[in-house]
Amino acid sequence: MNKFVSLVLAGALFAFNCGADAKTQTTAATKDTGLKKAYFGAGCFWKVQYVFSKAPGVVKTKVGYSGGNVVNPTYEQVCGHTTKHVETVEVEYDPKQTTFKNLLEVFWSHHDPTTLNRQGPDVGDQYRSVIFYTDEKQKEEALQLKQQLNDKHRFSKPIVTAIEPASKFYDAEDYHQDYFKKHGQTCE
Predict the structure, then answer these.
(1) What is the pTM of this model?
(2) CATH number, domain 22-182
(3) Where are the alpha helices (DSSP H) in the chain?
(4) What are the residue numbers of the active site?
């Protein structure tokens, strides 16, 4: 293949991916590798990223913003409560080593899913508890586990975690990525 054709194809692929929604990006990014993606909001994304980065079978994590109505939001905009975006962690995992259900267990175990728009001292709609599903199987597993946890009264109050379709995921600023690792903090 000559250089010109290669450049045209690369440009077309770039344009296609830039206009794709989260579901399409997830499928395109993981089809060749067999890896899957999951998206979680559970308070400040620094801790959530650290927790998921330690989970077995997780290959990569990234923090960003999802679920809102502003294109390419900034941290300041999200904290201004006008974008409806949630601080979200994108979790890329190997389904041969772990399952979405295992990731849900990590999610439910590391934050309080019974508080609306709050995790500890962090208050605001950007801290809401939410699972952004990428396909019907993820949706069903999330709904079933949420119901089971409520039925078993695992928490003292009902779970308020939202379960919503994944929308466009926007990377957070570089200084937010792997924040706990960069600053020598842990959650143990």
Answers:
(1) 0.81
(2) 3.30.1060.10
(3) 3-18, 22-31, 45-53, 75-79, 100-109, 136-151, 179-182
(4) 44
